[in-house]
Amino acid sequence: MSFFIFIVIGFAGNFIGTLSGGGGLISLPTMLLYGLPVHSAIGANKVANTVSSFTSFLVIFKEKEITLKESGIVLVTCLLGGATGGMVASLMSGDTLTLVAIFLLGFAFITSLLKKSNFEGEEQFKLNIKTGSSLFGIGMYDGMFGPGSGTLQMYLYASQKIAYIRAVGLNRVGVFAGCFGSSITYISTGKIEWPLTIALMFGGIIGAQVGIKVARKMNVKYINPLLRGITLLLIVQIVVNYYK
């Protein structure tokens, strides 16, 4: 029964995560409510997301909806940002990290209301001072804290007039970069409960693939409302956890 439940959790989290980021809204709290120890829950989530994000990226890459060059830019920048964030996190309190998360997500939400960024462009992702520093900052935030980093990436790609399915592919690369290093850490420290992690991974792969199929058919006018809804839910969840 537990195996099936974790397949469903993995499916739901990665389905939402593929479309707009924020899949952790579903998977992590549900695993904790189910009684999984916090380190095991985070580790399982990281391992499952590493695999599911990579498989979904491959599908988009094979269809030539994303290039190797821009994928490499996102991968390297997010890895460097994540590594830096991991080091910075040791110098900051948990309360400070929570406030940083609320500020970043709140800023992204307000900016999305002020700017008309709707994934209708056809641009490739180009590295410049603005995009590089933004992506590095998101990777750094992911290394420090994490919740909502995928959603923040989507806002960045929308601002660069990148088509939605391309943004989804780049987002999957960023998620892979953010989860890969931490997965190795959790595996090496023996925090992984493998039967449930494999179930989560299996559901995550299916959820990500279904998410890609839905993403290709989504009307762009629904994407920003979805992003904003996910952002508000993330802010509420983080605030509630902060006051707990």
Explain the overall architecture.
The chain is an all-alpha fold. It has one domain (2-243): Up-down Bundle (Growth Hormone, Chain: A), CATH 1.20.1250. 80% of the residues lie in helices and 0% in strands. The chain is built from ten helices and no strands. It has helices at residues 2-20, 24-33, 38-62, 68-89, 94-114, 129-144, 149-159, 164-188, 194-217, 223-243. It is globular, with a radius of gyration of 17 Å. The model has no long low-confidence stretch (mean pLDDT 87). Belongs to the 4-toluene sulfonate uptake permease (TSUP) (TC 2.A.102) family. It comes from Viridibacillus arenosi FSL R5-213. This is Probable membrane transporter protein. The chain crosses the membrane at residues 73-91, 97-114, 169-188, 194-214, 226-243. InterPro entries: TM_pro_TauE-like (IPR002781), TSUP/Inactive_protease-like (IPR051598).
Termini, distance in Å?
Answer: 30 Å
Strand count, sense and barrel status of the largest sheet are: none
> What is the 3D form?
globular
Overall radius of gyration: 17 Å
pLDDT below 50 for ≥5 consecutive residues: which ranges? none
- Work out the number of β strands: 0
Mean pLDDT: 87
User: Structural class, from helix and strand content?
Assistant: mainly alpha
Known CATH architecture: Up-down Bundle
What is the H-and-E element order?
Answer: HHHHHHHHHH
Estimate the helix proportion, in percent. Answer: over 70%
Query: What is the count of DSSP helices, taking H or I runs of 4+ residues?
Result: 10
Strand content: under 5%
Instruction: Fill in the CATH topology.
Output: Growth Hormone, Chain: A
The structural domain count equals 1
